[in-house]
Specification:
By secondary structure, the protein is of the alpha/beta class. The chain has a single domain, classed as Inosine-uridine Nucleoside N-ribohydrolase, Chain A, CATH 3.90.245.10. It contains eleven helices and 16 strands. The chain has helices at about 5-30, 60-70, 110-120, 145-160, 175-185, 185-190, 210-215, 215-225, 275-285, 315-325, 385-405, and strands at about 45-50, 55, 75-80, 110, 125-130, 165-170, 195-200, 230, 260, 310-315, 325-330, 335-340, 350, 355-360, 370, 380-385. The strands form four sheets. It has a nine-stranded mixed β-sheet with strand order 5-3-1-6-7-8-16-14-15, sandwiched between helices. The protein has a three-stranded antiparallel β-sheet with strand order 12-11-13. The chain has a two-stranded antiparallel ribbon with strand order 2-4. A hairpin with a 5-residue loop joins strand 14 and strand 15. It is globular.
Length: about 400
């Protein structure tokens, strides 16, 4: 081989090695990104799956959905209403393992609150309901359910097909609609799903958490897939240790679960008037035929004066911070805020709201365990750092954020 040829080949080798290293590092950066990135002004296309009912089962679902409409970084493409048949009844006396009896029915999928938010924000976000029954196995496409209950699965597939870019999916209920859609078109999911944000489970395989228990097979289906999934455990595996006196897994704290408590909701009284009416209608369990007109004036319906005086339990905020690319920060003045990425100052202390690469082992029961890894992985686990500061920060930052929403 001539010297020039050898030099040329060496250069080619160096270029090839550099390119390979760049691509590898870029790939690792994508999957091991502690703080998800978002370009200033970019709107992230999002599908939301929520077990939102009317009247409510958990009014936090009504409260939480406002964020998807109001954050300017989110382009809300579709809402899938997750409904489980047993909870439509006046009394759900034996809903199944991991689920609690519910005597506050009857109720149906939350079309009314979605229509109210579309009305308030001047939007036309598509909404459809998913299957009422559980998957039979992890390969189940759920093609045998009634046509009405097919709409949610079909809307997911339609939204992905029509999107010009990969879509983020937030699951805040059961995973069955997403799992069924994935089983029908796994190639589409691999091409068009940027990341699935799964609000479910416990930070160790010791407790069958509610969102998993709603359809364990659906969760097993997703956690045995190769889809990019960020897991945000709702429950904490520290029943006998941390938890501010709480000895219940869903209402306890650790560094990987998302739960925190708002001591009251009095800040709602300082929110935009239409959003106040929306929340009063929901928390008051109001049922009227003129549910849109009720958003126009305080004089149309009334609720108890102390309706927002009770404490509230929250699990979903971490997901919205990450999907929007925002940051939870402590300012120089000691205030806590959820800031747009472009408005974070050098003097702001960014608090952990991270996703860390992990491997997942899931049992057929729906219980799963994780192990953090520095290797490339399609799975990541939520990490919030100091749990006391995290709750303190969110108790201040979330009300400020909600009071800033202007439809």
């Amino acid at each position: 081989m001539c010297k020039n040829c050898q030099i040329t080949n060496n250069i080619r080798g160096m270029i090839g090695y550099t390119l390979k290293l760049f691509l590898t590092c870029g790939f690792l950066f994508f999957y091991n990104n502690s703080y998800p990135q978002s370009k200033v002004g970019y709107k992230n296309p999002v599908i939301v799956v929520t077990d939102l009912y009317h009247p409510y089962q958990d009014p936090g679902d009504n409260f939480d959905l406002i964020t998807a409409y109001a954050l300017p970084e989110i382009d809300l493409k579709a809402i899938i209403l997750d409904c489980t048949e047993v909870f439509r009844k006046p009394l759900a006396s034996d809903p199944g393992k991991g689920l609690f009896p519910d005597s506050n029915g009857p109720r149906d999928p939350g079309f009314i609150p979605v229509l109210q938010l579309n009305y308030i924000f001047g939007r036309n976000v598509p909404v459809a309901v998913g299957p009422f029954s559980n998957m039979k196995n992890i390969q189940d496409k759920m093609l045998d359910i009634p046509a009405f209950q097919q709409q949610g699965v079909e809307l997911i597939l339609k939204t992905l097909k029509e999107s010009s870019e990969p879509v983020q999916i937030a699951i805040m209920g059961s995973a069955r609609s997403i799992a069924a859609a994935y089983n029908r078109d796994p190639v589409l999911f691999r091409k068009k799903v940027k990341q699935i944000h799964l609000s479910a489970g416990t930070s160790a395989p010791v407790y069958l958490e509610w969102n998993v228990a709603l359809d364990t097979t659906a969760v097993v289906c997703l956690l045995r897939s190769e889809l990019p999934i960020a897991i945000y455990p709702c429950a904490a595996a520290n029943k006998d240790s941390v938890g501010y006196g709480s000895k219940n897994y869903p209402f306890s704290y650790d560094i990987h679960n998302t739960y925190y408590k708002l001591t009251n909701l009095s800040f709602i009284e300082k929110m935009d008037p239409k959003l106040q009416r929306y929340l009063k209608y929901a928390y008051g369990r109001v049922c009227r035929t003129d549910f849109l007109r009720c958003m126009d004036s305080d004089s149309i319906f009334t609720v108890k004066k102390d309706i927002f005086s009770t404490e509230s339990y929250v699990w979903e905020t971490a997901i919205w911070i990450n999907i929007s690319g925002r940051r939870l920060v402590k300012t120089d003045e000691g205030d806590y805020r959820i800031k747009s990425f472009g408005k974070v100052l050098k003097s702001d202390l960014i608090l952990p709201n991270n996703l860390t690469n992990c491997t997942i082992k899931v049992e057929t029961s729906g219980l799963f365990s994780f192990s953090e890894t520095k290797n490339v992985s399609n799975f990541s686990i939520f990490y919030r750092g100091d749990i006391k500061e995290n709750e303190k920060a969110l108790r201040s930052a979330l009300p400020f954020l909600y009071q800033s929403f202007k439809p």
